[in-house]
Write a structure and sequence with these properties.
The complex is a heterodimer of chains A (about 425) and B (about 170).
Chain A: H1 2-15, H2 20-35, H3 41-51, H4 58-71, H5 74-86, H6 92-108, H7 111-128, H8 133-144, H9 154-163, H10 167-192, H11 203-228, H12 234-252, H13 258-291, H14 294-305, H15 309-326, H16 329-346, H17 351-363, H18 373-382, H19 386-392, H20 394-409, H21 411-415
Chain B: H1 2-40, H2 47-68, H3 87-119, H4 131-134, H5 136-153, H6 165-169
The chains are: A mainly alpha (about 425), B mainly alpha (about 170).
Chain lengths: ~425, ~170
């Protein structure tokens, strides 16, 4: 009876358009009051314990570094570099689009920022160069999603916090799938645009544009190189990224002043104000579930019904594809990761690999109606109809689904650097 | 209504100032710690703790910034299930429920912080009492209660295009 009432309250909260933080607060309160010891103060103690973790420091720092680097003309510099470098290749401009998105994503850490920054420059350029509208829209939306898998990725950090998995390992594990997806999209761009006119390569031009864009290119190398070599932890690399971003944007590119820096801090803080309370509520529910042995019970139920790893991975994959259509990636990770992680361990799936698989899975949700975030953003940026964009991403979605299968069933692709 | 709008603006300015200060402390302390540790081999004692407390203050004070800018995440897939003509009433209920949620958590967290104060709970690394840092929890929820109550009474002062998932989640990726 209480369970039915609980579900009814959640449905009513959704119908009344409650924010996720309120819904999670209701769930946490219900768990402790109705199913627990009847004391709401445990939720507050859990909230404090959830926030009081050093590992969380990497989240604001990486977001700040990305926001600082996204303020100036980094996108333009990267695009110019990629355009010059890929000019003699068939479909060069299309490949430049994919590569620009991948590199910009590694700097900004955001899919939609990548889509807006690269798309606003590359969309008119692609159309002018004779590429089809459908290809231009699809490639930008799809390559824009690389932001969530290319390290540093906030969803990977969230997954690490929720499942106690090493964030440095998750970053390393994200490299293989990110490169594979970039190559897949790049190859498609090459094959699809073989007949588009090629440009010429000028080495003097390459040197000039490299000089302008080299500082931006060095950022991901600094972060990943530092983590991979063992020189930095994830939090340390985030601090170094902020320091580097300020030096580059304020003193070298000279595209940011003190007032801009204040605005970037406020933008980042606003983002934190939406994300961290959500994380605190989710961790409070997670603590309650662990205390009540719910993950253990789930593992028992699943093990009785699913007998092998392949069935578990396929079921999880399709489940998350459906979730990705309706729920944003942050909420999906906060709610699902702690529930699915023990099941994955029980099926002998490496938690780092499972995390990367989960992120790539939910990445597809950015391209699927009705709530595909990149589709919605693209509507505004490119002034196109939702369904025109949704159709344009279909070939890319198929490719990325193939990529997801590879990531899911070839763990070595994610784990070879660990 | 103008008084309510001005009041909310004043709260926002206060939150903004605290958020910038706390965020700057967090960032500068952690950067200084990393640089000194890499150069001298020994970091600043307690730097990470200070940064964590500054982050908690930033995040909870910014709970209000997210409300002010309409950036709290909200699932939208049920939006069309109720008639559009009910929107005004739904908005009022939405904000009232949010205000009530904040009030409940403000009261409960105040009692938790009071217990911490009585127990003189301290941070082992910094050897300071932690209740001043914990106080940001009831403060954030209480300000949330005031703000969302005003939004419920005067829906016109709510931020535009409020609270859809697209607006809030774009940087999570």
């Amino acid at each position: 009876m209480m369970t039915i009432l609980f579900i009814a309250i959640i449905i009513i909260a959704l119908l009344l358009r409650q924010r996720i933080v309120v819904i999670l607060g209701i769930v946490a309160g219900w768990c402790y009051i109705v199913w627990g010891d009847g004391d709401l103060s445990y939720v507050v103690l859990d909230l404090w314990a959830a926030a009081d973790q050093e590992v969380l420091l990497s989240i604001p720092l990486f977001i700040l570094a990305g926001n600082i680097m996204s303020q100036g003309s980094i996108a333009e510099r990267l695009i110019t570099m990629m355009r010059v470098a890929t000019a003699p290749i068939p479909g060069g401009l299309a490949i430049a689009t994919i590569l620009s998105c991948a590199f910009f994503a590694a700097i900004s850490g955001s899919s939609t920022v990548t889509l807006i920054a690269v798309g606003s420059i590359m969309y008119p350029a692609l159309i002018k160069a004779g590429y089809s509208k459908q290809f231009a829209l699809g490639s930008l939306c799809a390559a824009g999603t690389l932001g969530i898998i290319v390290p540093p990725s906030i969803p990977l950090i969230l997954y690490g916090v929720m499942t106690q998995t090493s964030i440095a390992d998750l970053f390393k594990a994200g490299i293989g799938p990110a490169v594979m997806l970039t190559v897949l999209l790049g190859l498609y761009a090459l094959i699809k645009n073989m007949k588009v006119e090629r440009g010429e390569i000028h080495f003097s031009e390459i040197i000039t544009v490299t000089k302008k864009g080299v500082f931006a290119l060095f950022m991901p190398l600094l972060i990943l190189g530092g983590i991979y070599s063992g020189l930095f932890t994830a939090t340390e690399s985030a601090a170094v990224a902020v320091f580097y971003a300020v030096i580059i944007e304020v003193f070298i590119h000279k595209e940011m002043n003190f007032e801009d820096l204040q605005n970037v801090i406020i933008e980042t803080a606003t983002m934190l104000g939406s994300l961290i309370p959500l994380l605190m509520m989710a961790l409070s529910i997670n603590t309650f579930l662990a205390y009540e042995h719910v993950p253990h019970l789930l593992v028992e139920i699943i093990q009785n019904n699913i007998t092998n790893q392949t069935s578990f991975l396929l079921l999880t994959m399709f489940g998350m594809l459906v979730v990705g259509c309706f729920v944003d990636i942050g909420s999906a990770i906060l709610i699902l990761a702690p529930l699915l992680a023990p099941l994955a361990v029980a099926q002998n799936v490496d938690l780092t690999h499972f995390g990367v698989m989960m992120i790539v899975n939910l990445e597809l949700g950015y391209l699927t109606p009705p709530l595909g975030l990149n589709l919605i953003v693209a509507m505004g940026v490119f002034k196109e109809d939702f369904w025109v964009i949704a159709k344009a991403v279909l070939p890319f979605l198929t490719l990325m689904f193939f990529g997801l299968l590879v990531v899911t069933f070839w763990p070595a692709l994610s784990l070879f650097l660990i | 209504m103008e008084k309510a709008r001005n009041f909310v603006e004043q709260i926002y300015k206060f939150e903004r100032a605290i958020a910038i200060l706390a965020f700057s402390v967090m960032t500068l302390v952690i950067i200084a710690d990393v640089i000194i540790r890499k150069v001298a081999g020994v970091g600043i004692a307690g730097a990470t703790r200070i940064a964590v407390y500054a982050m908690i203050v930033t995040a909870l004070i910014s709970f209000g910034l997210a409300s002010h800018n309409g950036r709290h995440l909200r699932p939208k897939f049920t939006d069309r299930l109720l008639p559009e003509s009910w929107n005004l009433q739904i908005t009022s209920i939405q904000e009232s429920v949010h205000a009530l949620f904040c009030l409940v958590f403000a009261v409960v967290s105040l009692s938790v912080v009071y217990d911490t104060y009585l127990l003189e709970e301290t941070s082992r690394m910094l050897r300071i009492v932690i209740w001043p840092m914990q106080s940001v929890i009831p403060l954030a929820f209480f300000v949330g209660f005031v703000r969302h109550s005003l939004y419920a009474l005067y829906p016109e002062i709510r931020p535009g295009n409020n609270n859809d998932v697209a607006a809030g989640s774009e940087k999570i990726q």
